[in-house]
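We emphasize that the prediction below concerns an isolated chain of 605 residues; any contacts that depend on oligomerization or on bound cofactors are therefore not represented. The input was used exactly as deposited, without trimming of termini.
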Amino acid sequence: MVLRHRPGTANLGGYEKMPTGSPKRRLAAGAALVVAALVTTTACGGGDGDDKSEKGAGYNAALNKVVNASAKKGGTLKFVGKQDFDSLDPQRTYYGMTWDFMRFFTRTLVTYDTKPGAASNKLVGDLATGPGEVSADGKTYTYKLRDDLTWEDGSALTSKDIKYGIERIWATDTITGGPAYIKQTLDPKGEYKGPYKDKSADKLGLKAIETPDDKTIVFKLPKPNGDFEQFLAMPTGAPVKQSKDTGAKYTQQPFSSGPYKIQSHKANKSLVLVRNTAWKKSSDPLRPALPDKITVTISANLEENDKRLMEGDYDIDVNGTGMTQSGRVSAVEDHRSDIDNIQTSFVRYVALVHTAKPLDNVNCRKAVFYATDFAGLQQTRGGAVAGGDIANSVFPKTIPGYTDYDPYGVLARKGKPDLAKAKESLKECGKPSGFSTKLTARTNNPGEVDAAEALQEQLGKVGIKVEVDPIDGAQSSSITGSPKVVKERGYGMTMSGWGPDFPTGQGYAQPLFDSRFIFENGNYNESQIKDKSVDQLFDDAIASTDPAKSKALYEDMNKRLLDNADWMPFIYEKNISWRGPRLTNVYSSAAYNGRYDYVSLGVVK
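Result of the prediction step, given as a token string:
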């Protein structure tokens, strides 16, 4: 739930409204206030119990349990966000926040359980009666559909609708941007051309999926893949009614299979969902469908959004990337019982583009590692509490593949740079005086432009001259996600963040590091790593039925990627998230990288 990962445009912060002093001093002061306030809060208790439900609220109350459990229906749930959804077309979305939100009007064969914390990682039946029946050789998955499945017009939702929706992934000239796992797994040779070029009368010519009747669907894999059901839980596995498919325009008015349908959508401004009266609760044990209406307001003014959340005009931030620096300070001072300090599964990183000279030279890339002040970047992001721990692994700690391997001594030096080794590396790559390059940063991801400017200053100390190019993150899939555009604009580095599409080594790492996942648009292998050894490690780990062996293979991959200085992680992200006091059934979901589980939420009218 690619990056899931990719927030977009806005003006970063308005730190000039804070007390006088240099921006970096103000950031450091703000981070210190947050840390001090939260340490005091934790010492006073609150949110640390193991109960499954807690009446009222408290600091960190929603991390492992449900806050304000209620079955009461009615009212309007109000989201605000700094950036619109990347797409409302289930086969085209790759933002984690969209995957979370889309479950209001989109269903899949299996989905993640609606429970707090790590329990949410369990796959359960959604359109299907339960997880699939898997053949002994691991190549055939069979699902039976629930009774009473309907579209928003009241017509029956069938196995053929699911097959057709999945087939749309193959129409890569029209349906772009979403993850390609299902396509790569079912048709590795790319023989099928998608439903728009399908010569069969019913446009259901993909042989790898069979629909023997309207309530049965069967998937035939060329070779086993233990993560296949994880692929089906993504929106790319959602049904689309063929008669309602408008191709590239489907994002404007997707047809609902869930408890809500779209009443209105104004791109980059607003979205309104109302009840889908054709939806039957008997077909859907997971979604409580509590609010009568759900609204989303898009505003690029991050500080104003935080202010209005705290004033009660909105209930929750749909982007789920945490509050701004000034918002965090205000929240911990005046509203600490309404916030959670969430450890996400995201890694903040700098991709080092291998096609951009001189970063095609491993020693020039190593110079960047040695010259980076990781502790300084951590402070810019909000410190250890609000920003997260310094990263030394390309894998987050929750994903098999993480190790404490630290070839550049990042943790040993507590995040401080080693300028002497940076200069040695520059000599070894033939650039003793340094070099020039361009670094992208997204304008509406809190702290990203500030972190990029801090890195610019740090690398300048060894002669690496960095031009920071702030970009519209909503357009990142066609900017940093386009190797052609990256080359034309001369980008050598991309600052961004990434969380797992699903909680395995494949689900986290394959889009980032597998050369077969480099695409013309929507490319997340931003370093453009083309390493056959890495590709083979993926193949071996995915094919293995032994979790310990797979884990060891991903650990080898982590070591190779770090030794080659391919991709520079710098923070395991934490954030301060607002949880409005009107909300009911609030909890953080590990399945959605620590975000609140949107589909369970209700409101006190």
